[in-house]
Every structure is written in C-alpha cells, then in structure tokens.
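Sample entry follows:

_____
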Amino acid sequence: MPGTHAFGIRAFGVNIRVATTCLETHATLDRYIFPSLPRMNDPKMECGTEFPDVFVSVARVAGQLELLVDGVAVESGRDVIDLVPALVRVLDDAVIQRLNGLRAVHAGVVLWGGRALLLPGVTHAGKSSLVAELLRRGATYFSDEYALIDSDGRVHPYARTLLLRNGLPDQVPVLARECDASTGDAPAPVGLVLFLEYQPGGAWSIAKIPQSEALLALLRNTPHALSESPDLVQVFQRAVAGAACYAGNRGDAVDAAGHLWRLCGEPS
C-alpha cells in the first residue's frame, strides 16, 4: 500500500506486523509495542507477502482513530496514545496463548541482586504501580503482568509497556526508562515470591509461607488457557525451590516498596 509505514516484531515466537499510513501513529506504536524487542526488517513481511500471526493496523474513521487486529476493530480513540492500552492487552493474549516451552503466571516481576522478585496477582490488583515504584528504586524491569517461567524454574523478561492508572480511571502506557530503569535481557532464578493484597490505607503485614502454599497460589494465578499444561506443577516447584515466600497485605505502592526493599536487605 502506497504511503504505508510498517514494522515487524517477533515476540516469543509470535510474528507481529504493525502498519499505518500515518507517520506519527507509526512512531507512537513503535515506541510502545514491546519496546525492548528488536524490529524485524524482513522484506517479505513488510511487503505483506508473508502472513503474520498478528496483524495490527490503525486507520482514521469518521474523525476517530480505529485500532484493528487481524482486520477486527478492537478500540477507537481521538489520539493514538488512547489505543495503546487496548493493543498491549490484545498482544498479551496473542503471545500467552501461543507460548512454547514457557509457562505464564499473572505477576509483576522485577530483578534485584541477580534474582527475580515475583508479585503474583490478578489483573487490576495493583501490580503495575508497585512494579513502577520498585523500578524507581533501582530494580530492573521484567514485567508488570506476566512472569514467564521455563522448565528449569527461571523467569524470563516479558517487558511489555507498563500500564499505570496513577489515580485515574484509565490506564496510561509508561516505559521502564521513564521510571529510570533498565530492562532485563536474560532469565533469572526466583529469589522472592510475595502474594500481597492491596488495601487502600492499609498497613504492611506479611508472614512467611511454605513453598508448597506458594506453589498452589501460583497455580491459582495461571491464565486459564495454560492451566492444563501437564508439567505445570513441576515447573512451578522448580521456580519456588530456592525462593523465600510470603503472603499478606499492603497499603500504597510507595510504602510497600520501602518494606520490600528492607525485606531484600536494602535501605529504603
């Protein structure tokens, strides 16, 4: 198509092609779609002769920008930035459903001292705000939504754009570098697993739990599409085998991050 601006990404075995006729829209999508992954310069993909696993396009319809995934409209908005949260979630689903050799858990993940800190929890449980605060304190970014665990129990970075609310009803895309953080580029063993329930205005209160209890909690936070994987229990057993595991309550992200850093033996 004349005037089309396009790029490709290979995310965990999933080929994604992004195309738009607007250069500004192209720049925004390039900024926020799996920002740490390299862009593909495959002429066949750019020419459309090789069908990708996921095809993303943005078009202007009746004064609005419309986001289409595989030809189906999934979101519309006045500005392209308004489309990014929906696109991040759609690509999450596409990648997680096609994972090969990795198992996923709903969890925020950061790296500290060479080991991964897992914060399992369902969507809207406040994982992203706590991850962002830990990044501001020096942690390395792995994910704010999924921990990807290999057969040896190591966690791989799933460095999608963070989606933060910052007290607002709608999510806003934020890059790890905007939190002055780097992004992980290699798998790491699990050092700490914390199941924290957010209570507005609440106080920090946690207790150590056995690894067997942590294993069951990880299973409860596994996406439904992957919950029947035959080796799931063994993989999660390896993940928690060398980890300290806790459960409890927390208040706001700033307070919780301070307690977490002290738990890791670092000054807050």
User: Anything to note?
Assistant: The CA atoms of residues 119 and 177 lie 20 Å apart. The chain has two domains: 5-97, 103-263.
